[in-house]
Amino acid sequence: MLSILTFLPVVGAVVVLLAPGDSLKRGLALGAAIATFVVSLLLLPGWQEIPDMQFVERYAWMPELNIYYHLGVDGISLWLVLLTTLLMPIAVAFSNQHIKQNLGGYLALMLLMETAVLGVFLALDLVLFYVFWEFSLIPMAFLIGKWGSQNRIYAAVKFFLYTLAGSALMLVAILALYFNAGTFDLLALQESGLPPGLQQLAFLAFALAFAIKVPLFPFHTWLPDAHVEAPTAGSVILAGVLLKLGTYGFLRFALPLFPVAVADYASLISILAIIGILYGALVALAQRDLKSLVAYSSVAHMGFVVLGIFALNEQGISGAVLQMVNHGLSTGALFLLVGMLYERRHTRLLKDYGGLWASVPIFSFFFLVVAMSSAGLPFLNGFIGEFMILLGTYKSSPFFAVLGTVGVILAAWYLLHAFRQVAQGELTNPANFKGKLPDLNWAEIGQLLPIVLLFFAIGLAPNFFLDKINPSVAALEVVQTPVAGEALLVDSSHQPPTTSANSYLTTIR
Amino acid sequence: MLELAWLILVFPALGALVNLFVGDRLGERGIHVVASGMVVLSFVVSLGLFFGLAGLDEHHRTATVHLWDWITVGSFHAPAALLIDPLSVTMALVVTGVGALIHIYAGGYMHGEQNFQRFFVYLNFFILAMLVLILSNNFVGMFVGWEGVGLASYLLIGFYFDRHDESYGHYADAGKKAFLVNRIGDFGMLLAVFLIWTSVGSVVFEEVHHGAGALTAGAATAICLLLLLAATGKSAQLPLFVWLPDAMAGPTPVSALIHAATMVTAGIYMVARTHFLWELAPVAGGLAAWVGGLTALMAATIALTQVDLKKILAYSTISQLGYMMLGVGVGAYAFAIFHLVTHAFFKALLFLAAGNVMHGLPGGELDIRKMGNLRAKMPTTFWLFLIGASALAGLPIFSGFFSKDGILLHVANFNIPLYLIGLFTALLTAIYSFRAVFMAFLGEARDQHVHDHAHESPAVMTRPLWVLAFLAVVGGALNLPVLLTMEHYLEAAVGAPAFHPNVTMEFVLLAVSAVVAVAGVGLAYGRYVKGPSTGVGRISGGVARLVSPLELVARNKWYVDEFYAAWIVGPLLGLSVWFNQVVDQGVVDRAVNLVGQVSLSLGGNLRKMHNGLVPTYALSLFCGVVALLLWFVIGG
Predict the structure, then answer these.
(1) Looking at the structure, do residues B481 and B548 belong to the same domain, yes or no?
(2) Structurally, how many domains does chain B consist of?
(3) Under an 8 A CB cutoff, do B197 and A420 touch?
(4) Rounded to whole angstroms, how far apart are CA atoms A283 and A306?
(5) Model's pTM, two decimal places?
(6) ipTM of this predicted complex?
């Protein structure tokens, strides 16, 4: 089943390339993406709320090297898989409307990317994982480089080289793990218990690759370039799914394989995450281009996810998993909205807009709801993730949580600023007048509506999602805190931050 | 009956959804009927809850209605559940009762507005969020409502999102400011919830109440200080009150409902709801009392100098919220809630009457300097406003007199300087409320154009006000000094104060308050009606000269906005630009590109090896990998 899920998009890509005529290509690509989504939904009826891998497939691939084709899904990857399969038909539908040049290639690349991403989320063998991981770069780089805007080549090369360089060391570390434990199998490696020295080095190598992908401050500068140049659907997938590969990597590989190193570096990474939250938010506020504002907001939001992961407790990590989905939905929707605006007006500068609420009320309404989701307003999804992350962070380190919570204020600032500049104020630019600027059509509403409905579903009934996430998170070695450590945390919760920051170590050891 | 409590939320939710999706087909009248009808139905449910609760034993008047398990992660659990007790039912009655009247009124006030439908969607959503805030049985649920009302407030302040004028700047900016200032308060609330959960292990009010004994004094104080920050945001206290005056940019029914009668009292409600924590943190309580007292005083001085009728009322609201904060700070929770209730009546009345003035004057004039003798043109509104002002001024018999005095009584026992501040503020209150009455409705018409075009409002905009006027007059009877009904009723939920005044002291202080209120009205009469040549006028003039150095400061709102602009917003914006232009482009990104260039030039030197033969690449890759592996293995 997981193999069908993973490779269905590739089949789709081949068919799309072979099919004659653009309208047939459009229909086939959308059909393939929707079919993949339907297959992924089939995971839900048989889902068991247990910590173990489910729907596991394992075949020998290169037996002499002990490399297996090993797939499986658990509570940490389930919703990321569904997020990917949901966003892809939406991105394809958007592209179908707007991409004119070399449509078949574009759609095929999108579908190839889906396979690569699903492969990363499902692979349980490090070699298989690495293959999918690297492969995910290629379609994206082409999408940016070929269908992007003016500066696309620079952005594509930067994106490609930066992330490639990041993962080179990871390959070395994977090999080192193999030579140490004799296997590439994630679950087997997890059992084996790696020597602390190797953990330190391997963790750094993995962490660099993941940190660039997230992107964690100060490795984030490829992101605004890539986003501003990428075509809309590319941005949706880049922000919605590709960034999650980094945080997912931390969760799936770094935390289980290198618990000792994770404990040592948790504070450092949390500090980088907090810098990302605050710095990303302030830089977002200074943007004049709506798309780069959203891009920097991703730096801040993904900082929250990393902060939650390195809180190293159930609340923080479950919140982080949910927040990955939330960020994918809300930022995906934001990029869609920016794209819809751009296709109409061919500008993304805030100063070219203002007062759109009067001329395009449906667009403005969606923009408001999406901005509020992104700002973490209760009733909606973003709040649940952000709240759990900060709660978990507070449990590990009150001082970090205080700084992170400042980010919640700043998030409201840049999002309301964006909404104020675009939708509110006086309608002065004649190009934006009612009649000149068409409101969203049904196809566009259809692309946004599933996302917005999910905002409410996650916000009102988060337990439907969390119940599937929690068992896998609770089984992580790093969150299995001794009771004594728990009590110590309670006592130290109002102590000065220095003591609390050290409580990471207490929590884990 | 109590298990049907969820219905109270369903009605406004339904109203908002119906009007959002099919409102354009319903027409103005249909929208108005749906929106108001739903709030009336919620009010009926509130009444049902009140009687359902009354049927229970006096000491066990509390019920929890579990709706669904909302968030569960590990040992953290936040249910979606309602807590029905005297406190929440009292709040629900006020919110739905006053809310229904204002919904009805707004049908007339907003008649012909372009975004009539949107307005009522927001208004119903506000009622929903406010009910979630006051009925949730846990901190996280309360926070949902807390931020929900913030969103409603933001949307309604910026309702005229394309307008701007001298008094309010861009209306959309006023909404943004309200949201962001409130977020600073929310920051405190979030941290308080984190601290509560890590120390007590629960976020459910009743469980925290039972587990509060485990809190150290330091933790309890920290929690309450964070909650105080949250309350100063939502209830517009020092230092976060700056958003409320600007919030008057919203339509007047919104000012009445959200920014006077209900939402802004959420901070007071929250403190009363968490009284069991404040009882462990006397330092935080004392600070809350001082914050309240000083806010009351400062806002009253500003109210004296304003010329915009709605802004006078806005500062008066801040000042009255200060009294309530003072009340909860000294532990007089029941009296603070009592004042919250009477204030909801008379301040909603005042705002709606001001709305009638605005509605009836050309161009929505609000400057009281251009009014005068409006009594001749809008007699009904005059009487309504006069009743509201009398209650606000605390004239004897009127509701505000009893509730404010209940608070002052407890303050007198707590701290004499604070009591004197409260008493002096009461004097100022009487002066500024009657300054508004006299300048707007009596004396000479100062602007003939305005006066000529003034007209009374239609019945839909006066009838609901009579209900409020009636309540503003007799609301004090909810808690007559001897009968003590409401206070007693609330004590089941918020606990009885440790201090019980004796009857003599009570009557002496009542008399003092009465004298002060009457004196305030007299001073205003002398200054604004009689003029400086008369006897009373001379006394008023003397008092005015005495405080004139303060007047400039007060007129400029104590320069608080300017302070924030110069010391917080400005630097942050500067930092934002600096980060963007210098740090991000100039340092971080340049470093990355530099690394890239160095590698490329290295690559140039090594080009000899790059002969395009795959085996060579493979070999060098292999060598590199082996080298690194060696490093790993040896290093490890």
Answers:
(1) yes
(2) 2
(3) no
(4) 19
(5) 0.91
(6) 0.90
